[in-house]
Amino acid sequence: MNKNKWSLFFLCFASYCFSQKLYFKKIEFGNPEFENKLLLLNKELIKNYKEKDSLKYHDNYFRFQMLDKDYSGALKTIYKIRNAYKQSYPYYSKIIGIQFELYSLVKNSTKTADIEPVYENILRERYNQLPIQSRYLIPDSFKFKKDFNKNEVIKILSDSIKNDSISLKNAVLLCRNYNTYITIEKTFSIAECILKKLDKEDILAKDSIIIKTQKGNEIALYYVFNKSVKQPSILHFSGYSLNGDYYNYNSKINANRGYNIVNASSRGIYASNDQIIPFEFEINDVNEVIEWITKQPWSNGKIGMIGGSYDGFSQWAATKRLHPALKTIVPSASVGFGIDFPMYNNCFSPYMLRWLSYVKKETDYKLFNDEKEWLSVYNSYYKNGIAFNKLDSLYGVKNPIFQEWLKHPSFDRFWQSKIPYKKDFSKINIPVLTFTGYYDADQRGAMYYFNEHHKYNKNAEHYLVMGPFGHAGVVSGVDENYKGYAIDPVANIDIEDISYQWFDYILKGSKKPEFLKGKVNFQIMGANEWQSAKSIDELSSGKLKLFFNKTKLQESKPEPGFIAQKIDFFNREDTLKSLDSEKILDTIIDKSFIKYKLIFESDVFDKPVEIIGNFTGELIASINKKDMDITMEFYEKLSTGQYLKLAHDYFARASYAKDNTKRNLLKPFVKESIPIHNTFSTGRRIQKGSKLIVVLGIRKSADAQINYGTGKDVSTETIADAKEPLDIKWYTDSYIEVALLKK
Asked: What pLDDT, on a 0 to 100 scale, did the predictor assign at position 227?
């Protein structure tokens, strides 16, 4: 469960519209009579408070019971709340309101003023009764500051009492906040000290360790483990700041699985004082950390790696010069540097500058998430029609990394040197488990590593798991409802748990995770099932091939002809309204810049059809320029009229479609063949009564690098290069195809 859901349990109070008034004379907080008067008000609440929602009722009522010194009653009410959540959140539910539970247990056990020894005994007893997953959530319950509740009490006393009366709503708020204030004041400092002792007894954690590389550079890390015996180590190597959180939940849980957990950051990040250059040094630096781990007294010499996005890239970078101690990697949503970021199919995007802005010594998440700021930058670039390589100047800070990346629009040696390339894969003889998703922006990076590994190493023990997940879902935990689409129940997998079952299999000799039925595992959306096989090809039983004809997708090849399209690059009225308003399941096709796109639809399917893998095909086109950036989106139009996006959007630069290492410009007014490949994979049971929809267009928007078609370096083109509109003829022998699932 993610951190946002945690707010359910600390325990929120909704606004109630009670008109009832209770007698209460205005009095200052700190007045010797204040508490006595408040307790009389609290007794009135116990008599008069009602609430239709039982959870909200209990959430407030146990606090009234505590103030009334009915601690046994308060405990019973707290346990009722926990019981309501035990199915949905089994580990969190066990500690809901634990700060109030502990105080109530203590008050039931002693009348003495010095409660610390009793509190420690009770906390230790409760701690030892809990599963590990619940234990390490407890500290979050004690992070609240009493000043907040004190100030709320003072504010209510000042603003909400008129004519010697207080509304029922404000009386509830007053008693809630005062009870929390008392609980914090009496117990939190005690609890924090005891929890630190318990942590030290359970685990060993060391923070801000600096490793010096052979060339004198600095890499910062922290590590966590729970035993002083030699055991395998799991390395997580990130491009983001560690923030000193060495007591983080996942590290402690995974240490209790019997592993040393080592978390390292790229040089220049966190406690390292080196220069930050993302993606530049991981080949050497990850292996320096691995070498350091092997020399520690707690290491048994066996190391696995885990992590997603940039941290998935780090694992693959390490395999380019594989250290003998690295026994397996489990990359998720792995960035393919130069494959899908900072360019995808040789097209750059403004997002690359946004990403660079928050990769700092202390990761700047606030700036990264500032939608207003980035909408302004993107839209200014678009409206003004400046060159893409001036984007950082528009932002206000010249970025040398941004400029260096733009010098390499081909997948050249610059990118190839940072990740395994061609024959490098033949030397990667360790088992690999890859996770990615149909809506993961880094799926094509993950698939680059998967496909190339199998291409160059026929004995590769490389497993793949793919389902209806977005990027964050693959990295941080699957979303049950992703952008309006409720995933099938079987798709709701625990990626972290499967990963550690894999580590047990490789590093400890346990059995292979039961979930992995084959080397490739696809969740078939709409069928509520996983399909597994030895290879992607083994899942296929042929292909569905559809030709473009006017507004139709059809299985028979049409009569010769073409569909005309005109793109006016001068028109800049349609700026971005949001950075991400996309829905996977919606009543309309993606609203953004739809007028630059053509919509093609198939006939209605008269029976369910299951598709698997990625869309491929060939576009036959002629244009009046030398280049263009193509976009394609794939949907199922349901019989209800809704549109289900089948995979992440595809786009590609036509001049690189045949070879991403070398630009081959199109010849104006000449019929050209443009292969469609490197699209995003999917797995879906197309429903009876549905249609397949393909949206074809040209990349022209505020969140895109705009290719004006002059043949010059696209990063240097400006709106002055637009001159005349782009005229396209899409010929009717163009087609797309997708594999059909073998049963």
From this structure: 66
Using the predicted structure, report yes or no on whether residue 123 has a pLDDT greater than 70.
yes
Work out the end-to-end distance of the chain between its first and last CA atoms, rounded to an integer number of angstroms: 34
Query: What is residue 18's DSSP assignment?
Result: -
Q: Which residue has the tokens 């209770």?
A: 22
Give the number of residues written for the chain: 743
List, in sequence order, every beta strand (DSSP E) within 355-399.
Answer: none
Which of 553, 315, 339 minimizes the C-alpha distance to 435? 315
Cis peptide before 278 (omega within 30 of 0): no
The residues with which 600 forms a beta bridge, in sequence order, are 694
Nearest to 237 by CA among 267, 210, 276: 267
Cα 469 to Cα 441: distance, rounded to the nearest angstrom:
10
At 664, the amino acid letter reads N
**112 in helix, strand or coil?**
coil
Mean pLDDT value across residues 391-398: 89
> What are the φ/ψ torsions at residue 329 (nearest 5 degrees)?
-130, 150
Mean pLDDT along residues 212-225: 92
Q: What DSSP designation does 397 have?
A: S
φ/ψ of 571, rounded to 5, equals -75, 115
What's the pTM value of the predicted model, to 2 decimals?
A: 0.85
pLDDT at 140 over 60: yes
Residue 97: both structure tokens together: 């309101």
Whose CA is closest to 443, among 461, 467, 479? Answer: 467
Give dist(CA 508, CA 554) in Å, integer.
53
d(CA 234, CA 254): 9
52 three-class SS: coil
**Alpha-carbon torsion angle 160, 164, 169, 172, nearest 10:** 100
- Classify strands 485-486 and 481-482 as parallel, antiparallel or unpaired: antiparallel
DSSP 64: H
What is the structure's pLDDT at 284? 96
Separation CA 68–CA 77 (nearest Å): 14
Q: Are 240 and 363 in contact (CB under 8 A)?
A: yes
Cα distance between residue 93 and residue 166, in whole Å? 34
Residue 225, both tokens = 């483990």
DSSP string for residues in 586-626: ESSS--TTGGGEEEEE-PPPSS-EEEEEEEEEEEEEEESSS
The per-residue b/e assignment along 492-522, b for 16 or more CB within 10 angstroms, e otherwise, is ebebbebbbbbbbbbbeeeeebebbebbbbb
- Alpha carbon distance 357, 573 (integer Å): 27
- Element housing 543 (H / E): strand 540-549
Question: At residue 592, does pLDDT exceed 70?
Answer: no
* Pairwise CA distance, residues 522 & 65, whole Å: 52
Structure-token match 């990667």, residue found: 428
Using CA atoms, how far apart are residues 715 and 347, in angstroms rounded to an integer?
10
Q: What are the beta bridge partners of residue 566?
A: 727
What amino acid is encoded at 210 in this protein?
A: I
Whole-number CA gyration radius for the chain = 30
